[in-house]
Design a protein that fits this description.
It contains 2 helices and 30 strands. 14% of the residues lie in helices and 38% in strands.
Length: 403
């Protein structure tokens, strides 16, 4: 009987060594979660009658439990590397099967899908035509198509006009004659085809607190002069609402006719030199994909060469009531089981789900120092059980030697 008991001890110690060895082997595996062997004693006794003198029948392995503690987060140079800070799992599509992982080493395949090293596709909430996140989920695909251009429809301008400036001595206004105007500034605007055009604005003082604004696009005058005026406090009083509307014009290059409004609400007239403090417009040319940005909420933005960005989707995370019930499949993947419960899916940062860190990976949560100590203990247990067998062998030989 003692031989059998010692053998169960050897098996348990060997199982513990296997678990520890696996932990140490995966110390560098991204998103790996270490395991712990849990043992139970064995008693071959009946529930009927007394058993206070039972000595037991050894040990068995109850389970190998994974420890889902947070691993350290290491920053990388890839924007598609993702780490979960907190609870949850990435959802990946493996040829139709839904699996779960803490390994956020993602990249793009030739079709624009975000995939891991196993070519499994990252699942995300999709977006509609307006760029709004919907409740539907599917493999995240980044569009490599050029973005459509947007014609300029609004220009915002902020500047100070010098109240002490003199009225130009030469008239009428002529854009090619600097003596006919006081100040000028310019910005690029875009037509419906994405073509760039130079819009130039000229300021001509006409009296105390009154000015004319003339506008040209590519050197061609757009409408007549627009009068503006300022109060004694230097604030704009005309036009009402602070906005002037240019007459429709068709720029060279085949674009559609444009209607542009110019906001002057930030214009002032103080006794200081002319200076522009704001000049912006809402148009842009076509753009090519230049990079990917992902925020902590899992929103995936495609960044384009024209300075624009477009939401491509939102990374979906899943959590379980009992993560230890998940079935480990290898390749840094787990599968859902009845013991784990139903996956609770949501965006990062919601409910119990952690936040996303882009350009980073979660390290293995294996503590090498602790594992080496456990290794010594497991080796000692193995040796101790071999001593039980050795002692029992000696006792058996002694009995056989009785004459």
């Amino acid at each position: 009987m003692s031989f059998t008991t010692a053998i169960t001890g050897l098996r348990a110690a060997q199982a513990n060594l296997n678990v520890i060895g696996n932990n140490i082997a995966n110390v560098g595996t991204t998103g790996f979660k270490n395991s712990r062997a849990e043992f139970q004693d064995v008693y071959a006794t009946s529930n009927v009658g007394g058993s206070s003198s039972a000595t037991g029948s050894g040990v068995s392995t109850g389970q190998v439990a994974q420890q889902f503690t947070q691993g350290n987060i290491t920053f990388t140079n890839s924007g598609l590397d993702l780490a979960i800070s907190g609870q949850g799992f990435f959802i990946v599509d493996d040829n139709g099967a839904q699996l779960y992982s803490r390994d956020g080493s993602f990249g793009m395949d030739r079709n624009g899908f975000v995939v891991n090293a196993n070519s499994q596709k990252l699942i995300a909430f999709s977006t509609d035509a307006g760029g709004n996140v919907t409740g539907s989920k599917g493999p995240l695909q980044i569009s490599a198509a050029n973005t459509n251009p947007q014609a300029t429809a609004a220009v915002e301008m902020g500047a100070n006009l010098d109240s002490q400036a003199a009225i130009p001595s030469v008239s009428p206004f002529n854009a090619t004659v600097p003596a006919t105007y006081n100040n000028t500034t310019a910005t690029s605007i875009f037509d419906s085809l994405g073509g760039s055009h130079l819009m130039q604005v000229y300021f001509i003082k006409t009296g105390s607190g009154t000015w004319n604004v003339n506008t040209t696009v590519d050197g061609v005058a757009i409408g007549a002069a627009q009068p503006i005026s300022f109060g004694t406090n230097g604030a704009l009083t005309l036009p009402a609402g602070g906005t002037i509307t240019l007459p429709p014009f068709t720029p060279a290059g085949g674009g559609a006719a444009q209607n542009v409004t110019v906001s002057l609400t930030q214009m002032t007239q103080y006794g200081a030199p002319f200076g522009v403090n704001k000049l912006s417009q809402n148009g842009f040319t076509t753009g090519q994909l230049s990079g990917i940005d992902i925020d902590k909420g899992g929103n995936v933005f495609a960044r384009y060469t024209n300075g624009q960005s477009k939401l491509q989707g939102q990374v979906a995370l899943a959590n379980f009531a009992n993560p230890q019930g998940l079935q480990s499949l290898g390749k840094n993947n787990w599968a859902q089981t009845f013991a784990a419960g139903t996956p609770l899916v949501g965006p990062p940062g919601s409910s119990t789900l952690g936040a996303i860190q882009s350009g980073a990976l979660e390290d293995s949560n294996v503590d090498v120092s602790a594992q080496l100590v456990n290794l010594i203990v497991a080796q000692r247990n193995f040796q101790a059980n071999t001593q039980v067998i050795k002692t029992n062998d000696a006792v058996t030989q002694a009995i056989i030697g009785i004459r």
